[in-house]
Write a structure and sequence with these properties.
homodimer, 207 residues, alpha+beta, Glutaredoxin, Glutathione S-transferase Yfyf (Class Pi), Chain A, domain 2, 2 domains, four-stranded mixed beta sheet, 47% helix, globular
Chain lengths: 207, 207
Amino acid sequence: MRPPPTRLFISSIPSGNCYKVQLQLSLQGMRCPVTVMDILADPPETRRPEFLSRNPNGRVPVMQLTDGSNLAESNAILFYLSAGTPFFPRHPLLAAQTLQWMFFEQYNHEPNIAVLRFLYRWGNLEGQPAGTEARLRAGGLHALGVMEQHLTRNDYFVANRLTVADVALFAYTHIAPDAGFSLRYYPAICKWIDRVSSHDRFLKIED
Amino acid sequence: MRPPPTRLFISSIPSGNCYKVQLQLSLQGMRCPVTVMDILADPPETRRPEFLSRNPNGRVPVMQLTDGSNLAESNAILFYLSAGTPFFPRHPLLAAQTLQWMFFEQYNHEPNIAVLRFLYRWGNLEGQPAGTEARLRAGGLHALGVMEQHLTRNDYFVANRLTVADVALFAYTHIAPDAGFSLRYYPAICKWIDRVSSHDRFLKIED
């Protein structure tokens, strides 16, 4: 028996990593109280001892469970919520492919698109080392290209249906224009965004 | 029934991401033919059409299976190999915690320690934008600090036994000195490295 979530700790600015957990909760018809952490405070609330005892890595989202444990890393939380449901395939190869796309998201997609979006909207882009924007832009374009190629031949990332691989990638893709990425060059991604957004119990990101 | 691996594509330079798959195969007593891809060629063999048809992201490791499919992302491959064995806990919370550390590895650890190691040994560190080394160094020290704190109270990352979370983190941690990180400031990590290395069927990285 899995302990259910009792509280979700999220960021005070609209974060795709936090949103993806809220979207998955909504898709599964689950509700969970939320605590908003001020990550722009000095020091950020996520870097203070009380929060570090939940996640020594000092990052949100964190999901607290009834047994008192705390789970970090957005995609690990998605796995926890979805395991045993149609959102996480049971077949070993499809399960591994779901995780393949989720690791791709955290390695090739988020560190470029989400970081550039943060610098555009809340950070100090001009204060970054020379070449930072170009490096993040190139990485983000590469990630979007890989996604476009896959979605040209597939409606979803894995198993021809909505899984947590889609939820993980949807989070920062649909708000990539915040970071100056134009999605009109990616028609398959645009159709996939419409497809994901039209699901029952879809939840919009708060902005 | 899971298709067994028929071939593993790895890098021509000693890569922790490729090594972790070879280590896991060894721990499970499995063997698999290897194809070495020249990633320092121009263009790298991993960015040529034949390989991109296996992994459009252009990265190794890639594991080919008997059904003809190809699985990418080192940690997704570890999941595939270990699912159903003691190396991947069956309990949902422990399974999610295993993945939590594997996502931490790919987000906070590898992009700092592995990238700095590459620049030290094969890349052009001097040619990087100002501040690159300092940024990667700070990120790597943070990741090692989070690991040290956990290992001060635990022999392994999850479930008090060797899992793929340890294998994933071991790969670039034990060779962090290649990137100028001194492990003598991390006594709990050093003991954990000895603990992992002493397992039956442990495999050393080739260098």
